[in-house]
Amino acid sequence: MRNEKLIHALGNCINHCNYCADACLDEDNVKMMVDCIRVDRACAEACAALSQILATNYKDVQGLVDYCKQVCKSCAEECEKHDTQHCKDCAQACRECEKACEAYAA
Q: Is pLDDT above 70 for 1?
């Protein structure tokens, strides 16, 4: 059950980060969105890696959980700088995933 809650949050974060990165590419001033695109992609990759490892029920994942929490925090902070709806939605998903990582560690 513990893995399932985190896996759900990770999946939601992956989806929002990928959507946000793609939507940023369609923005008029895409150069302003470069950092957002980079961190979106990094966050989606970190979440995907953790999700895949959790699905195996491997126990020694705390280091990756901590890393994922930090990447989600960084992504949320970057997305919160932008006023687009996709960035707002992504920031929210990242914050929820960050909290799920914290709860997993507790």
A: no
